[in-house]
Amino acid sequence: MTAAIDAAQGIDVDAVAARGARWVAYLVVAIGALFMLAPFWFMFVFATHSRSEIFNLPPPLWFGHDLVRNFDLLTERLPFWRNLGWSVYVAGMATVLTLLFCSMAGYAFALMEFRFKKALFGLVMATMLLPSFMNMIPMFMIMDALGWIDQQRALYVPGAASAFGIFLMRQFAASAVPRELVEAARMDGCGEFSIYWRIVLPLMKPALGTLALITFITSWNNFINPLIVMRSLPNYTLPLALRSLQSTMNTEWGALMCGSAIATIPLIVLFAITSRQLIAGLTAGAVK
After folding, report:
1. The CATH number of the domain where 253 resides is what?
2. CA dist., res. 13 & res. 217, Å (int)
3. Model pLDDT for residues 119-155, shown as the tens digit of each residue
């Protein structure tokens, strides 16, 4: 009876229901986004308050007037700019080396034929099944044997050929690089490295951009590896340096939040600018 009345009045019940469901979905996503963004908001707010104000009940919800004081405390207790520079250097080197070695391996596994190719690729993929904590002791022993303890190279060389990067490059090369083009270049006498550099690499730019973003962000946020191999405060990367500010009784939380906010800003800007590139690269390499 109600449906007949609505139909008589020209109301599309299905359209109204679909619109209502869409708004409910938007509301759920908005609430989830608020919960996800709340820690970032409090981090930036607490960076402008003193320690006593941070622990007030209720906590401050808006910006205060202690940002300069917190920044002065931060630079007084840490060689902050040196630590920030090391983070930029380590993340940059990790990104460059990962792009180089993973793209070369991806090209080889996708477009070259050699003995034990499938077995080697399966072995590379099998390393993704190992929990990361299993690598801690072997990594320390190897870095110690090489004399790389407290050296930044210990933070970017071991992960330069990651299994995920090789898999992503291999999938993208197999789907985006025409095998006929590679074969034609070989018939014309072009060497394998020349094919890789002049033909394959330009066609892999979307995947390279995606892998560069993932690698840079992962390296920038890396805490465990510096904790294992780094020993002196001036050589710490930023996450480990900020952790050293914490003590049992006298942690300057305002200064810590100030440093965390400064460390987070580049990643937020980078992701905001390149989020579409990241998603496009991941989806483009996902299907052959």
Report:
1. 1.10.3720.10
2. 47
3. 999 999 888 888 878 888 888 999 999 999 999 999 9
